[in-house]
Amino acid sequence: EAGVAQSPRYKIIEKRQSVAFWCNPISGHATLYWYQQILGQGPKLLIQFQNNGVVDDSQLPKDRFSAERLKGVDSTLKIQPAKLEDSAVYLCASSFGSATYEQYFGPGTRLTVT
Amino acid sequence: QQQVKQSPQSLIVQKGGIPIINCAYENTAFDYFPWYQQFPGKGPALLIAIRPDVSEKKEGRFTISFNKSAKQFSLHIMDSQPGDSATYFCAASDGSSNTGKLIFGQGTTLQVKP
Question: Quick check: A19 contacting B, CB < 8 Å?
């Protein structure tokens, strides 16, 4: 079974530029999560989708971050404009069920904002 | 109240030793307590999880001990091996929401020396 795929794996941008990350969850997983993991910290949930609907985006900085999950499969997370403090690893995860602790993570995208 | 506090930040043990990682929480609405293991360059992977009505759970060399009255839980790794060297995150699932939102601890970097 293929795991969660993410691209790109690494990205370096200057502040005020925009960037987009892509995620393809495990086939059949209805729930998709985007997490931000700052160096030395645990992952923090940014947004959770159930199929193509948002169920939790309470910690998403909506003035600069946006995410979509078209057709309930792939998802894209965008940052525009980026700030220095956005430097982090952005992890995508998926799960079969909705309210479950059993989540499967992708390898992440390491973003460096200079 | 939504925090999960994890300690120590880092841990070094000899092969065969029993590293212990501790976590504490405040929110009594948390309903599952998973542990995730993360290797460098990889996403976190679910290791083991426990419900608050169970005091201990074992899976292979990994054991969770849970103290509901103290609101604390810990991970023990029996007969630790160099391949166990990784970062370990405790987490808590928010049962008060219908999303199962995971709150992660800050992480513990474990090094097992040969």
Answer: no
